[in-house]
Amino acid sequence: MKFKSFAITLALSLALFPAPQQADPISKIELPDMGDSSGTLISPAEEKEFGEAFFRSLHSQIAINQDAEIQQYIQTIGERLVVNSDAPGNPFHFFVVMENNINAFAGPGGYIGVNSGLILITEAESELASVMAHEIAHVTQRHLYRAYEAASRLSIPTAAATLAAILLGTQSPALGQAAIIAIQAGNVQFQIDFTRENEAEADRVGMQTLAGSQFDPRSMPIFFERLQQSSRYYGQNIPEFLRTHPVTASRISDTRGRAETYPYKQYPDSLGYQLTKAKIRVLTSTDDADTLSYLQSRLNQGTTEQRAVTRYGLGMSALKSQKFNAAESIFQQLSKEYPNQPQYVTALAHTALDSKNYSIALARYKKLTEQFPNNEAIKLEYITALLKAGNAELARKNLFQLQSKTQRLPIYSQLLAQVYSDLNQPAESHRYLAEYYYATGQTKDAILQIKLAQKSKGLNFQLSSILNERLNFFINQEEEARRER
Predict the structure, then answer these.
(1) In what order do the strands lie in the sheet with 93-97?
(2) Spatial CB neighbours of 365, under 8 Å, sequence gap ≥ 6
(3) What is the Cβ-side half-sphere exposure of residue 173, based on CA atoms within 13 angstroms?
(4) Which of the residues 112, 267, 387, 434 could staple to 449 if both were Cys, CB 3.0 to 4.6 A apart?
């Protein structure tokens, strides 16, 4: 399938070009429809396919977060913003990239990524929300389609892979070079011309979304200012993001003036934001001793709740270092003090699981699923615990009860593959492992797994038909991409 115009963006990485203007009034801005709803540029079906292919390519090239708790948090914040955006009915997919670089981006199909480094540099939940609202505005105002013009010679798989490679070019020169080669091979020219007007529009619309979602509109200029100040300390090693997307005084002034048109009030951070930051800090740390020192220095600072968050971070640090007794002690105390906070009691269950106390872990997770019946992250952890404890059949039943949006995550296919392997059903195991590989951008491995599934004994007609259909699909995807390399 050919992508008709490839007029879509690879990521606008917060696109922080200066755009000095007078602040607009609070009343909602009505902008002209500059999009492609008629299918002139790209049909909804093509956009969906392109977005999915783009996300698969990202999986194969960078570290996409696989922690269900972190994913649930970022998706919840994103959905809260989308409801108050100009396109509340559009599909959006939010995810965290486990990279320390300060970055955020919007891709085709409403896929919006936020780097862990950006989350950690924020000092308030509204600052994180301001970044996400800005990126949502780029999507709803169709800036992605106005930012690029290219020839129509690339298939969707190749276009998505090229987009992902260009997006990652500042992080990996090799991938950036691969993108250039792909473009040259397809005789395609990219024209990057994201305008000041687009950025000003994204600021205005994003701020409206932010305020409508009960986040602090003043957080946008505050965060911009922090980025500007931080850039002074990098010297010649300033990140590519800040070099290509400068934060200027005029932009800060413009957003501050607009924010001041909104009534002032307090916007407290959610505990989920604080705990997510603490968890990300530990998981992405490359110097565990330094992280431990940082957390210990803050142990007696802030409110009671903030000190509890620091203790949680210390517990996660102990768990990461396999100091199970220390982690158990911390999470036991936090669970007693905050029995209704899922992160604390989930961490206690996770400690038992990691220390291989399976009976205790299962009891704790089962209680958690009863206490928080709608928490999909807890359900995924419970299923993982069931598999580690050797109860594949119950794990299978629980997998089938997950929400449809959870079943679309790569981890769902990965867990099902493990379930069927444990149940001694190799054909089904290879089938779902193939789906996992395809979802994470590894089409060749997906083809291999389908072929292994076809060699399994006792295949019925229905499963054989499914395997044949998926094999043909994977082969066509791979051949289409190979023709344009």
Answers:
(1) 93-97, 111-115, 104-106
(2) 349, 353, 378, 381, 382, 385
(3) 1
(4) 434
Phi, psi of 144 (to 5 degrees): -60, -35
Nearest to 395 by CA among 412, 383, 407: 383
Q: CA-CA distance, 407 to 316, in Å (whole number)?
A: 27
Report the catalytic residues. 135, 203
Radius of gyration over every alpha carbon of the chain, rounded to an integer in angstroms = 24
Are the C-beta atoms of residues 1 and 49 closer than 8 Å to each other? yes
Q: Which two tokens stand for residue 291?
A: 């992280």
Q: Contact at 8 Å (CB) between 78 and 184? A: no
Given the structure tokens 């913003």, which residue do they identify?
Answer: 81
Q: Are 476 and 465 in contact (CB under 8 A)?
A: no
CB 142 within 8 A of CB 34: yes
Phi, psi of 2 (to 5 degrees): -90, 140
pLDDT in tens, the chain (485 residues): 444 333 333 343 433 333 333 334 344 444 333 344 334 566 788 788 888 988 998 988 889 999 999 999 999 999 999 999 999 999 999 999 999 888 888 888 899 999 999 999 999 999 999 999 999 998 888 776 654 444 345 667 777 776 666 655 544 444 545 555 555 555 554 443 446 677 788 889 999 999 999 999 999 999 988 887 776 666 655 654 455 455 678 878 989 999 999 999 999 999 999 999 999 999 999 999 999 999 999 999 999 999 999 999 999 999 999 999 999 999 999 999 999 999 999 999 999 999 999 999 999 999 999 999 999 999 999 999 999 999 999 999 999 999 999 999 999 999 999 999 999 999 999 999 999 999 999 999 999 999 999 999 989 999 999 999 999 999 998 888 777 55
Token pair of 352 as six digits = 């038992």
Q: What separation in angstroms does the CA of 189 have from each of 51, 150, 215, 281?
A: 21, 6, 40, 40
What tokens does 105 get? 């981006």
What is the identity of the amino acid at 411? I
Distance CA(332)–CA(378), nearest Å, equals 18
DSSP one-letter code for 66: -
Q: What is the pTM of this model?
A: 0.86
Residue the block writes with tokens 């994103």: 78
Element (H, E) at 65: none
| Helix and strand counts by DSSP (H, E) for the chain | 24, 3
**Residues 87, 140 contacting (CB under 8 angstroms):** yes
